[in-house]
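User: For a benchmark we're assembling, each entry needs the component sequences followed by a predicted structure for the full assembly. Here are entry 17's components. Please fill in the structure.
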Amino acid sequence: MNLVAFSIRTKGAHNFTRRLGTVFTRFGVSETPIRHALHSIIDSLRQYNAAPTFFIPAVVLDRHPELIYEIAHDGTEIGIHGYVHNDYRTLSKGEQYKQTEHAISVFQKNKIPYQGFRNPYLGWTEDSLDVFASLGFNYESNVAVLHDVVDLNTYSPLLQSGYAKSLELFQAAPCSIYALRPFFEGALLRIPTSIPDDEMLFDRLRITNPWEVGHIWSLVMQRVYDRGGLYTLNFHPERGDLCKSALDMLLSYARSRPLPVWVTRIGDVAQWWREHSAFRLTITSLGSDRWQVEATCTPRATLVARHLAVEDQPVTPWYGSDVCVQSHRFTVKATSCPCIGVSLQTPQEVLDFLYEQGYPVVRCSEDEAHNYAMYLDEPEGLGTTREKQAKLRNALVQQIEALDKPFVYFGCWPHDSRAALAISGDIDSVTVQDFFLRILEVFRHK
Ligand SMILES: [Zn+2]
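Assistant: Structure for entry 17:
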């Protein structure tokens, strides 16, 4: 299927015709308008000591190497967005491998470092994960989390159906505490991305006021902050001016939260998550309801304590009634061990999962269960299918985050941050020519 047919199927004929009309206002025949849009986003983020992540198809990079080199040199992370802008769900595993390998060689030829892959249309398959892992990607960013913050009833049925088509295309999962965290599949890290994206708001729902979009993005930020997760915003820089005001509003909202929000690039999130998943807590009884806590972690770790008294180190207020402990070795007073007890028959994969989330774990028998903040007996492990695993992982994280007992754990983000915000965009085209070449390129690489 070519881009025209694909776009008509997914966007609807009227949306496609409308989009075509906007091409000439969003792109120029030169790189100037997009260069301007990219720099204005980079400048907005610089005020927060942060930088964006942009994904670009290899053929587009190959036509605009200086522009991409220029922004990469400025601190922007560049990721791979396919060899051409096609949907991997229409390709065999062999073809996915070949095209990904080609894309890598174009990035290498142009000396653009990369560590992540995001598919056009977020169109990943099980095969894609194997391909990304075998080609050595650090992460992929395709798992879409839906933030249900738009009141669709206020839009016409026609606009609602366009929005619904996007939802279907992106295979989005509902928002939950766990859905907002990165996760490992083998060696590959999967970093969730968020929808609605700019296209769904500006093009599908035809919101023309950037302040309205900024308000929606801020609502998403509030939800993510409350759940302590990652908000990966995704937009297309060709909507630069519209997105810029909305982006500035979001960034200023994030900064105004009571606790820090870590504004960062997706690649930095990936590196952090690998670092964080290796952290460990050792808790030893000192008798008389006192416990020695020893953290094995890097200096930027966030150490959180709940419902207990830290005796010998300073603490600062954190989220809810939790506090941050400003030391990696401290003594606490608590009526039970501030740790999760796990039964002897529970397989190691459950412990590994809990460690990855930053929770302290110790093996114990059922008789000792009452000595711990929580006791887990999961002899079947995390389940054999992707759906079962997601359900159980979700339930576990939710249960642990709601614990009403003495507990110590690592926060998800560095430097006492409550949440993380990664600003990302897909540079699908740089010029009008790129936009029309996409049709040919996708047709050639079916
Ligand atoms: Zn794209």
